[in-house]
């Protein structure tokens, strides 16, 4: 399989047609997986805001005060307000804000970015990244899959890694249930999250900085002859870590 | 960048020289990243065991009884014993065993596998995967990096994904601290776990089943001009999820 960053994309602005811009710069082929950093999807969808756009309520002010006390750094309650408005649930409020976004993804600060956002203070994640992926897919000239990605921290391990927020034209996971290992035993690993693995792959060539390469193409990768399904974000009932964090306090 | 599975590897047995076998099948080049599934590292290092090799103590029997009660399936206390012996700490004992391996990785059942292990009941993870990676690297004819990988579950998200257990010839993480985004602001994302992203990339072509492809090569990927560091597994103090899980009970 081959992986390359799409060169020559401009600074994306609200209303831009991301699919058309990608099509101009890359000779896509049927079967490619096009991985798009959520940052440009958000910009195109007009998700850049200023802090002044958020009016901090009681809860946001209390959260910001607490975080300020812990870190010793000034915390803007309007940022906490933006996180609250993007979230369905607060999983942790200290020593940082970990929340469930409205589309089910668990990440710090609801994934709100302050890097690579000119002329605005904040960039919110796309409202519905799977719908965004589908729209980009429909706009591209080849029959491809699309994965909308974001860089995110994770428990247990230092550092961040790209994950999938939304996807179209493919299943999120390869389901190996019912398949066999080399000795004919049923497999222990049953569900491989290929959209997350594709997001990580793309991030190796897009990077986090000023590279200007928010899109990567994975070519000649095959989902293969496996079952698939689209369940990526755990619900509360099957997520023991979320349950534990809800009861925990810093 | 290019990613391909190394074909033609035999069933690996205790004592096999994994590096020599890889060298025979792949024309490696300087700068390649060679990702090796822990399963064959373990086999080569003689980490296959039978349940009969473990004598279940009190604690293992209690754990197995509890898990049996929860799931309704028979649980062998000798398996619980093997997990205990491979672990420094139990993070959760129910509804499944989540532990910290002796080398610091947090995963279910200390990563003990029951798939792709002929002639034995269990395959333990390598004792020191970074030492294994270094030994393989030394044995290869080109100047490459080596990542020893395993498929592992993760909180918040369904399914499994490959991660790095050990690495050699490269840093675990790209450290972006001090670097700037497109607008000259200091970056929000500071540490990119490239070894985990490489492991995920490799897993897209190796798979989980009877493919017989435990090794993948990532070619023409560049770490680039960034700082690096080798801290991958969080310690307890910086791991709030682990702290919360320790206090939680099912
Ligand atoms: N050409 C172009 N590149 C961008 C733009 N915004 C971000 N990037 C690049 O996209 C890549 C990913 O950016 P990042 O901020 O990490 O995105 P995220 O992971 O989705 O939050 C980096 O190489 C950035 O330089 C943009 O508007 N235009
Ligand atoms: N040639 C060969 N392939 C193997 C062997 N053991 C496992 N595999 C293959 O290696 C890949 C990864 O196997 P898996 O059990 O998922 O490894 P893990 O992720 O390290 O636990 C699959 O394609 C297996 O078929 C072996 O001894 N020889
Ligand atoms: Mn982001
Ligand atoms: Mn990023
Ligand atoms: Mn394994
Ligand atoms: Mn695997």
Automatic annotation (TrEMBL), chains A, B:
Monovalent cation. The ion could be potassium. Residues 9-220 form the Coenzyme F420:L-glutamate ligase-like domain. One of its GO terms (biological process) is F420-0 metabolic process. GTP binds at residues 9-12, 38-39, 43, 116, 206-213. It holds the Pfam family F420_ligase. Its cofactor is K(+); Mg(2+); Mn(2+). Keywords: GTP-binding, Ligase, Magnesium, Manganese, Metal-binding, Nucleotide-binding, Potassium. One of its GO terms (molecular function) is coenzyme F420-1:gamma-L-glutamate ligase activity. SUPFAM superfamilies: CofE-like (SSF144010). A divalent metal cation 2 binds at residues 151, 208. A divalent metal cation 1 binds at residues 113, 150. The keyword rRNA-binding does not apply. Pathway: Cofactor biosynthesis; coenzyme F420 biosynthesis. It comes from the Archaea. Its EC number is 6.3.2.31, 6.3.2.34. It catalyses: oxidized coenzyme F420-1 + GTP + L-glutamate = oxidized coenzyme F420-2 + GDP + phosphate + H(+); oxidized coenzyme F420-0 + GTP + L-glutamate = oxidized coenzyme F420-1 + GDP + phosphate + H(+). NCBIfam families: F420_cofE, PRK13293.1. Catalyzes the GTP-dependent successive addition of two or more gamma-linked L-glutamates to the L-lactyl phosphodiester of 7,8-didemethyl-8-hydroxy-5-deazariboflavin (F420-0) to form coenzyme F420-0-glutamyl-glutamate (F420-2) or polyglutamated F420 derivatives. Homodimer. This is Coenzyme F420:L-glutamate ligase. It comes from Halapricum salinum.
């Amino acid at each position: 399989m081959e992986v390359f960053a799409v060169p020559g994309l401009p600074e994306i602005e609200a209303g831009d047609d991301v699919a058309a811009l990608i099509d101009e710069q890359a000779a896509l082929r049927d079967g490619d997986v096009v991985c798009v950093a959520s940052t440009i999807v958000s910009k195109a969808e007009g998700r850049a805001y200023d802090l002044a756009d958020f009016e901090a309520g009681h809860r946001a002010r209390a959260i910001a005060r607490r975080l300020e006390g812990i870190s010793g750094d000034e915390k803007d309650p309007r940022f906490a307000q933006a996180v609250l408005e993007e979230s369905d649930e607060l999983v942790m409020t200290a020593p940082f804000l970990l929340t469930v976004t409205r589309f089910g993804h668990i990440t710090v600060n609801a994934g709100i970015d302050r890097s690579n956002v000119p002329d605005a203070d904040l960039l919110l994640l796309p409202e519905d990244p799977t719908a965004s992926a589908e729209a980009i897919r429909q706009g591209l000239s080849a029959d491809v899959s699309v994965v909308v990605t974001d860089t995110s921290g994770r428990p247990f391990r230092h550092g961040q890694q790209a994950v999938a927020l939304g996807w179209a034209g493919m299943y999120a996971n390869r389901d190996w249930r019912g398949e066999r290992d080399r000795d004919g035993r049923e497999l222990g690993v049953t569900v491989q999250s290929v959209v997350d693995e594709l997001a990580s792959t793309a991030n190796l060539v897009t990077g986090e900085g000023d590279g200007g390469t928010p899109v990567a193409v994975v070519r000649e990768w095959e989902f293969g002859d496996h079952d698939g399904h689209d369940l990526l974000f755990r619900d509360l009932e099957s997520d023991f870590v979320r349950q534990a964090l809800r009861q925990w306090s810093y």
